[in-house]
């Protein structure tokens, strides 16, 4: 029997997961239980600092008595429920979703996407070259981060991070409908003419690399980006007294980007423009 960590004491619920009895704290999701049990459920739109949006549907599982497959990231565990994660129905649904996403967006910088496509034997090419792609050049209109909408899967995580869940700037929204839907700032303007405050919290939550540090984008384009050669050091931001934690990603003795620990009680992965992008002075050796 698997038991998840409790944290704040809560009543435990018991249910069946792939034939195994598991216990989770009240309020936990099926995805929480799967991860505690060591089960690898693919996720893209899920963010550990955001309210689930149920947008991508690659985490679906089968629940006994449910007419449809349910998203594990948002479905709360219930006592006595029977959950199956690897049924033919669930696996086929994940396969089709991966095919649809990979046929319409560039997932080359999406962590684990190639692994999942191989595992589920997805064949995105079967939709042909006329699949609904934007075929748009990356938008490089500022010095801090790049918008490459060819990699966007419309997960809405950037909208939520910019909006009421964190930053409350509301610079980002969804424009258009259907195949024309896309992430945009007001009037689809250059980022420099928008309400963006360059906190980079949208970059932090983007699962595909559609939003990326300008430094990372340039290094990837030059073929020099190498995560295996990078080190990560967590420190405290020195700009003010809030005490935000920064994780410095360093390659060849240069800071290439800055993130923040999602489990930090001060920042929860969020930073301001100074913490996220104000690191150039550290390596100004002139």
UniProtKB/TrEMBL annotation:
InterPro entries: 2Fe-2S_ferredoxin-like_sf (IPR036010), 2Fe-2S_ferredoxin-type (IPR001041), 4Fe4S_Fe-S-bd (IPR017896), 4Fe4S_Fe_S_CS (IPR017900), Mopterin_OxRdtase_4Fe-4S_dom (IPR006963), MopterinOxRdtase_cofactor_BS (IPR027467), PSI_iron-sulfur_center (IPR050157). Residues 11-89 form the 2Fe-2S ferredoxin-type domain. The keyword Lipid biosynthesis does not apply. The keyword Cytoplasm does not apply. CDD domains: fer2 (cd00207). Keywords: 4Fe-4S, Iron, Iron-sulfur, Metal-binding. Residues 142-162, 188-216 form the 4Fe-4S ferredoxin-type domain. Residues 230-286 form the 4Fe-4S Mo/W bis-MGD-type domain. Pfam families: Fer2_4, Fer4_7, Molybdop_Fe4S4. PANTHER family: HYDROGENASE SUBUNIT, PHOTOSYSTEM I IRON-SULFUR CENTER-RELATED. This is 2Fe-2S iron-sulfur cluster-binding protein.
């Amino acid at each position: 029997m698997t038991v998840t960590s409790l944290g704040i004491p809560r009543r435990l619920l018991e249910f069946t997961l792939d034939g195994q009895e598991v216990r989770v704290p009240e309020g936990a999701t099926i995805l929480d239980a799967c991860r505690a049990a060591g089960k690898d459920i693919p996720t893209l739109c899920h963010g550990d600092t955001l309210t689930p949006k149920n947008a991508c549907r690659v985490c679906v599982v089968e629940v006994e008595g449910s007419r449809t497959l349910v998203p594990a990231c948002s479905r709360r565990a219930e006592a006595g429920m029977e959950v199956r994660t690897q049924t033919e129905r669930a696996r086929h649904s994940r396969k089709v979703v991966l095919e649809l996403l990979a046929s319409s967006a560039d997932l080359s910088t999406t962590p684990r996407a190639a692994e999942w496509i191989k595992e589920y034997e997805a064949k995105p090419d079967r939709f042909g070259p006329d699949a609904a792609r934007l075929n748009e050049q990356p938008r490089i209109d500022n010095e801090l981060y790049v918008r490459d909408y060819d990699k966007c899967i419309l997960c809405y995580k950037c909208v939520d991070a910019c909006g009421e869940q964190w930053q409350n700037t509301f610079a980002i929204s969804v424009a258009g409908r259907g195949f024309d839907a896309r992430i945009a700032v007001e009037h689809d303007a250059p980022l420099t003419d928008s309400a963006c405050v360059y906190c980079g919290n949208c970059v932090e939550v983007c699962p595909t690399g559609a939003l990326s540090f300008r430094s990372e984008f340039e290094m990837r384009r030059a073929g020099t980006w190498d995560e295996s050669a990078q080190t990560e050091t967590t420190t405290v931001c020195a700009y003010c007294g809030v005490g935000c934690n920064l994780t410095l990603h360093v390659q060849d003795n240069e800071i290439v980007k800055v993130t923040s620990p999602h489990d930090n009680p001060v920042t929860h992965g969020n930073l301001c423009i100074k913490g996220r992008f104000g690191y150039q002075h550290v390596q100004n050796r002139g």
